Structure formats: structure tokens, C-alpha cells
Amino acid sequence: MNIDTIVDKDYLGKNFRALADAPISALCGVSGKDAKLLAQTFNVTTVRELANLDFVKWACAITTLADQERTPEAEQAKESLLDGAVEMTFPASDPISVDAGVTRIEVAPDMVDAQGDHQDAGQVEHSTRRGVKEAKAAKAAKAPSTH
Prior knowledge:
With 147 residues, the chain is mainly alpha-helical. The chain has helices at residues 16-20, 32-42, 47-51, 54-68, 73-83, 95-100, 121-142; strands at 85-89, 103-107. The radius of gyration is 35 Å and the shape is rod-shaped.
């Protein structure tokens, strides 16, 4: 970085020690009015005092650590699920999607084993037959006796 791009033209060519002890207005973009407000609010008048301000140190530390922080495992898992998902929009006939632009995220299927019962169709059929038998039995039990 060329230091001359971040200091006011009156401070071009000064060494770092002189810049650190210069008024805050020596920083490019900080006006005399801004420097006065910083002096009134935080009691800082030089670049060094601004850099040593606890709030500035805390902000620098937080952002430095945030840039190095690892993503929590749960959030990372969500991201990988979404990365492998296929985004689909609802049909235009769906009034919700037309009004709100609602989208649905579906996970793309892995390779399906067509040889096996991958959707448990046999189990569904068995469960349906059992439910029909139970419904008939319940209906018969409620029916009035004709004796």
C-alpha cells in the first residue's frame, strides 16, 4: 500500500512517527469538523490516540477474529445440503408463488437402485391393505345387528 493514498496532501512524504503524532485530520477523508467531533466525543486528537482507542482496538480484534472463525458444524451442514439441492419454482398457476416469488428447495436424489424397492412400495401396499381391513372391521362393528 502506498501511504500517500491515505494521508492528506499536507502530510505527504512524512515518516510514520510524524504521521502517528499528526492530527486525525491528516488522514485522508477526515475533515477538520470530523476531527473536532472525535476530540469532543472520545478525547483523541492524534492518529496515535485514535489507533490506541479501546473501541478501535476491540473493533479490529473482533473483525480479525471473525475473518478467521470457522463456520459452526450445524451451519456448515445446512450449507452443504443447500449446495447439493436443486432449486425449483412452483408452477405459475400456484397463487402463492405468483404473489410472493416462493421457491422450493429439493435435494437432488442420489443414484437410485432400480433393482430394489427404493421407495418402500411393498411396505406402503401392505400398510394400505391392513388399513382397509381395519376400516371394514370398524364399520362392521358399528353396523346395527339384523338378528
